[in-house]
Amino acid sequence: MFAAGLIAFTEFGVIASGHFVSAPWEIDVYAKHEGLEVAGVLIALLPACALTVMAAIVSWSHPTGRRRQLEMLPVILVSLLGAVLAILQTTDNVARKDFGTASPEDGAFAAAVAVILWLVGAFWLARARRTGALLIMLGTFILADGFVTLHLLGGTPVSEIASKSGVAWAGIALGTATLAVASFVAALTFLVAALAPRRPWAGIRRQSGSRLPSGP
User: What are the tens digits of pLDDT across the range 59-116?
Assistant: First the structure.
């Protein structure tokens, strides 16, 4: 069952990725014929397949593993919300063909890869702090850099998004960039803390200081 599910979702992702190449069924042409919501589904399929494969591998390697610490739950929730907003923003960009010099299929694929890196890093942060932080930083940097290049330095200001697509879509673009920058800063903080050298006597002093004084 594990092998069948893994192969099925991998094949599903390969089929979905076929819409992100220059072909008669590329994502913007496909969205024109089937509807704009199909573009959002295609973009979301790649992160969904990647996370499913990751979950299957982790579940197989740790069948009874369980973490009771929930200190990374806020990071995961922010990443999930940011991923949803990024997919919606990319869907609107496909409708307006607003990817700068890149084609819609290349821009949409880059956004999907960035979302995958963001989500995988968030779920991996608790177990592998450095790897998870680096993945989050890479994914959020791609999204934030795209927003700055296209909407702050490029020829498509946020006001134009509001006039063409609506105020809600402009808010989604701003929300995506805000969460991406916030997650980048948080991941950088985790990475610096993980790389900082630890003093070997700090833990011993903390433990000795917390002991109750013994009686005579």
Answer: 766 655 555 567 788 899 999 999 999 999 998 888 888 887 888 788 888 898 999 9
Helix (H) or strand (E) holding 6: helix 2-17
Give the largest Cα separation in the chain, rounded: 87
Q: How far apart are CA 16 and CA 28, in angstroms?
A: 14
Give dist(CA 155, CA 209) in Å, integer. Answer: 60
Tokens of 70: 């929930």
Nearby residues of 148 by Cβ (< 8 Å), 6 or more positions away: 177
Torsion of Cα atoms, 29 then 30 then 34 then 36, to 10°: -80
Question: Where are the chain's structural domains?
Answer: 2-60+72-195
Residue pLDDT, tens place only, 108-156? 888 989 999 999 999 888 788 899 999 999 999 999 998 998 888 877 8
Closest CA to 115 of 93, 145, 135, 95: 135
pLDDT of residue 118: 94
Q: How far is CA 100 from CA 30, 150, 175, 211, in A?
A: 20, 6, 20, 62
What backbone phi and psi angles, to 5 degrees, belong to 61? -80, -25
pLDDT 10s digits, 6-35: 555 555 555 655 555 555 556 766 667 677
Q: Compute how many other C-beta atoms are within 10 angstroms of the C-beta atom of residue 211.
A: 7
Q: What is the value of pTM for the model shown?
A: 0.78
